[in-house]
Design goal:
Length: 161
């Protein structure tokens, strides 16, 4: 595999970055429509997914993994707790910061949503080759990792040039 000219590659990467916002907006709208009637918000759905993948987490740990403010995740977690989707558990590492775990109800709600999402993605996935998806995953991972220092210290801006 030959590497493209660095200047051309940077310009193409920038073109991909410009597509992230409209892709994110369209995905968020689509997911929101399919959450109607479930009582879940986009944030609630994201937290359910995270807990399904990782197991119990504190609010602070969930916030770090979701790249959100702890206060935002706390509000979502409180709502999910009230709805019966998550339950608090003692946190052996921190007495005042409980762990949140999915309940059977929360696990079932996420499994149902995720199955519908995968079914809907089948039409789009059918238009792509496996190599396309592998390359897209590599690019998105490189972007997330490449700008990770900014997430760790938002006061230290990372230059694009």
């Amino acid at each position: 595999m030959t590497k493209p000219n660095p200047d051309k590659a940077a310009a193409r990467l920038y073109d991909l970055i410009r597509l992230i916002r409209p892709a994110h907006r369209r995905l968020a709208r689509s997911v929101s429509v399919h959450l109607d009637g479930t009582g879940l918000s986009l944030g609630g759905r994201a937290v359910l997914e995270l807990l399904a993948e990782t197991g119990p987490l504190s609010v602070a740990a969930a916030a770090r993994q979701l790249f959100l403010a702890r206060q935002q995740v706390q509000l979502v977690m409180d709502t999910l707790d009230q709805q019966g989707h998550v339950q608090k558990r003692p946190n052996p590492a921190h007495r005042r910061s409980p762990l949140f775990a999915l309940t059977d109800q929360g696990r079932a709600a996420y499994a149902s949503l995720h199955a519908r999402e995968l079914n809907r993605l089948g039409d789009i996935a059918a238009q792509l080759e496996d190599a396309d998806l592998s390359a897209a995953l590599r690019v998105m991972t490189a972007l997330v990792d490449g700008f990770g220092a900014y997430e760790d210290d938002p006061d230290a801006p990372q230059p694009l040039a």
